[in-house]
Amino acid sequence: MVSIHDALNAVKNNINPLFKETIKPLERCGGYYLSKDIVSPINMPPFRQSAMDGYALFLHSDLAYTLIGEVKAGDSHELVLKPGEAVRIFTGAPVPETANAVMMQEKVVVNDSKITIENDIPVAHNIRPLGEQVKTGELALKKGTKLTPAAIGYLTSLGITEVAVYKKPSIALITTGNELVEPGKPLVYGKIYESNSKMLLNALYNLKFYDVTIHKIEDDYIKTKNKLETVINTNDMVIVTGGISVGDYDFVGKALKELQVEEVFYKVKQKPGKPLFFGKKEDTAIFALPGNPAAALSCFYVYVFIALQKMVNKDIVELPRVKAKSVSKFEKRGDRPQFLKAIYNDDEVEILEGQNSSMLQTFALSNALVFAPEDVSEIKHNDMLEVILLPN
């Protein structure tokens, strides 16, 4: 059995970035990382642009101007102004070539075709210059940049429709157990509805990992071994829930050993999630999580999350940890460190009732995990606690 510290380091040291490239439509690249530099194909803005509603002026020595027309956003006609002439203009509209300033409308008095501005203004006032954001041929975004909604909007504004990104891992989710029934089917005595696959699938979707397949195995050794062999050979990551303990019908560990999966660690001194397995075979990472749903999800956020981030980016990214003041009491039993479901709000944290590893009701209300070290037996009001913020 390994410590949490050693288990975390083992995950970090045994997962490498995939660095496999794929070309994807830009609108489907949220959360991906660029695998190549992006050079701008255009100037942005592609013309001199008015920064506000007002009047574009060809500046001269007087405050009075002759109004000769109007330019709206999207207009493509090009007006030519002489000194002392102006056009009505709107935000985002192209500024006529000979205009050299824009006065906001609130500082202009209009009298038919004559306008008077309140004061002199400098050249280029309220004009967004050609290529202010980026010029043709300049670096728009560098390799390794994460494609956030803002980044996707920015690249779209440059007319880019697809980009080269690092491929995200293909992931197989496996649930085991004869007691599991698919929701929607009758629930007979001795059976429970299977929830781990939907829970972990949505945890992955929430992190923008979509290349996921779900597989369900009965408590049968041959079927377990054959399915594991298939998914290990065809995926970048395999996540198994259940069947990793030492019961008579827990076949996952035995099958992984026969398939020559390298065991990095098995069993962590923690609660929940003691029977956690992490191993690898060639470039495929294998996590066997406990079958109890709350334990499985805790292990996912603490360990699998790190592995996923390392696969898509060379930087190690863990969930954020903060210090917060306890507004509740908790008595910890045993000498294992614990991850406790909690609600974090404004530098305070409440440890919830119902910490059993089989119970998801409390987890459904949580937005954080409190880490209680092994040498802590009691948490009191106002104690400062280490809190892991969940990506909910």
From TrEMBL:
Keywords: Magnesium, Metal-binding, Molybdenum, Molybdenum cofactor biosynthesis, Transferase
Annotated ranges, domain MoaB/Mog: 172-310
Recorded metabolic or biological pathway in which this protein acts: Cofactor biosynthesis; molybdopterin biosynthesis
Listed SUPFAM superfamilies: MoeA C-terminal domain-like, MoeA N-terminal region -like, Molybdenum cofactor biosynthesis proteins
Enzyme class (EC, first level): transferase
Reported cofactor(s): Mg(2+)
Catalytic activity from the UniProt record: adenylyl-molybdopterin + molybdate = Mo-molybdopterin + AMP + H(+)
Protein name: Molybdopterin molybdenumtransferase
Species of the source: Flavivirga aquimarina
